[in-house]
Design goal:
This protein has a two-stranded antiparallel sheet. The protein is an alpha+beta fold. Helix 2 packs antiparallel against helix 6. The chain is elongated, with a radius of gyration of 21 Å. The protein has helices spanning about 1-10, 30-40, 45-50, 65-75, 80-85, 95-110, 145-150, 155-165, 175-185, 190-195, 205-225, and strands spanning about 15-30, 125-140. The protein starts with a helix and ends in a 5-residue tail after the last helix. Helices cover about 50% and strands about 15% of the residues.
């Protein structure tokens, strides 16, 4: 037991915080054709903001990116919104591939929509970019109990950074939490339960709640095995 705890302490989990500053591009679309055209020429940073960073913002979870959200809510094109929501940005190796997938879906939709209706005045799609800052949250965890405590109090931006954005950084497209739990704590089954959480079905608050519940049960089992009263 002492040897195992020593290995844990050699590699603590450092929580990091993610915050963004919005930057307007000056481009806007009022219908699908205009949306398609601007997606084809706008910067990678803008594509990233409207897709990968969707879950950093408070949005309707029926959708999985800003384009789908706008098509469904402002254009009232539910079929188009559904097709755009089926695009998983983490399923593409590059932003160029993701951009192509978005354009392909919109092209297919334009072939079947009866009329390319405009958005109501004031509800045009505004293309934005973000400047993202990542910095230490000043919180570390050396074992599962400390991780559980920290998980309850870090900001949503930290949950987003470690659970969503990590999928672009960590080999295999997994999150920081499960990678640390598997590699530092040697709890592969627990890591797999966390990876089984669908990131596109929940917002950051719900993701926090699901992971907290899973980890809480694991901590309780560990304490029972050690003969500690809960």
């Amino acid at each position: 037991m002492e040897e195992h705890l020593s290995r844990e302490n050699q590699w603590p989990f450092e929580f990091r915080q993610c915050t963004t500053i919005l930057k307007a591009t000056g481009r806007k679309a009022s219908n699908l054709k205009e949306l398609r055209h601007i997606i084809s020429i706008v910067s990678d940073d803008s594509i990233f903001h409207h897709t990968y960073q969707y879950f950093l913002k408070e949005h309707i979870l029926e959708y999985t990116n800003d384009f789908a959200h706008w098509a469904g809510e402002s254009l009232e094109e539910r079929a188009v919104a559904e097709e755009l929501s089926n695009i998983d940005p983490y399923g593409y190796a590059t932003l160029a591939e993701l951009r192509s997938a978005l354009l392909s879906v919109i092209d297919s939709c334009l072939e079947i929509v009866s009329q390319d209706r405009p958005a109501p005045p004031g509800e045009e799609f505004y293309f934005n970019e973000t400047i993202t800052y990542v910095f230490p949250a000043g919180v570390w965890a050396s074992n599962l109990a400390e991780f559980l405590m920290a998980l309850k109090f870090v900001d949503d931006g930290s949950i987003y950074y470690h659970f969503y954005e990590a999928r672009m950084r960590v080999p295999g497209g997994v999150d920081d939490f499960s990678q640390w739990i598997e590699q530092a704590l040697h709890k592969k089954e627990l890591a797999e339960r966390i990876r089984a959480i669908d990131p596109f079905m929940h917002d950051t608050s719900e993701i926090r709640a699901y992971i907290t519940d899973i980890v809480m049960k694991e901590v309780s089992r560990d304490m029972e095995r050690m003969g500690v009263d809960i």
